[in-house]
Amino acid sequence: xxxxxxxxxxxxxxxxxxxxxxxxxxxxxxxxxxxxxxxxxxxxxxxxxxxxxxxxxxxxxxxxxxxxxxxxxxxxxxxxxxxxxxxxxxxxxxxxxxxxxxxxxxxxxxxxxxxxxxxxxxx
Amino acid sequence: xxxxxxxxxxxxxxxxxxxxxxxxxxxxxxxxxxxxxxxxxxxxxxxxxxxxxxxxxxxxxxxxxxxxxxxxxxxxxxxxxxxxxxxxxxxxxxxxxxxxxxxxxxxx
Lengths: 123, 108
Hints:
The structure holds 2 protein chains of 2 kinds.
Chain A: E1 3-7, E2 11-12, E3 18-25, E4 34-41, E5 47-53, E6 59-61, E7 69-74, E8 79-84, E9 93-103, E10 106-113, E11 117-121
Parallel strand pairs in A: 2-11
Antiparallel strand pairs in A: 1-3, 3-8, 4-5, 4-9, 5-6, 7-8, 9-10, 9-11
Chain B: E1 4-7, E2 10-13, E3 19-25, E4 34-39, E5 46-50, E6 54-55, E7 63-68, E8 71-76, E9 86-91, E10 98-99, E11 103-107
Parallel strand pairs in B: 2-11
Antiparallel strand pairs in B: 1-3, 3-8, 4-5, 4-9, 5-6, 7-8, 9-10, 9-11
C-alpha cells in the first residue's frame, strides 16, 4: 500500500526558501501513470494546488506561484521535493503531497495524500 | 482559472437524513473532471468521487456524485455519524487545478 510522508522545517524566516520533501513508500514513484503534486491549506481555509511532477521530471505549477516554485524528483530515493522561494507570512500553511493517478490519459483525482506538514513563516 | 463555488457553506442535518451538496463552476469543467473530497479535523482530504460520478476505492455506496458542465452535486443518501466533516469539490479538467471553498456538514 502506497504511503506518502512529508518532511522539512516547520519554521521558515520571511524572504527565505521553504523546502519540503515527500517520501513515497510501498511503491515506486517511477512506475509511471502517476503525477505527484504539492497542495497547501492555509489555516482554517480551503485547498490550493501548487504544482505537480511526473517521474520523468516534467512539471507544471500553478501560475499564481510559478515564479517562486521549483518541484523536483529523485527517483533513486523515491522522493519528490518542493522549494518555494521568497516566502512571506501568506505562505504559512499545511503542505500536503498527493498522488494523482492517470489511466489512459484520464485523471482519477488525488487518491493518496500525505498526512501534511505545518509550515510557519515567521522571524 | 476555473472558480468553484460550493453551497451551502454549512449544512446542518441529523444522522439518517439525506445530504445534497452543490458545486458550481465558473466555466464548463472539461470531460467531467470533477472530484469530491472529505476532510475531517487534523486529517488530509480523502477522495470520494472522481470523474463527477465514479466512487473511489473503498467508498460506501451511500456517496454518489452527479452533474456535468458547470453544475455538480454530491449526495449522501443516509448520513452516518462519521460523515460529518468538510467536503471539497475540485476540478482537474484545466490548469491550474482548483478547489471549492468547502461545505461543512454538521450534526443538527
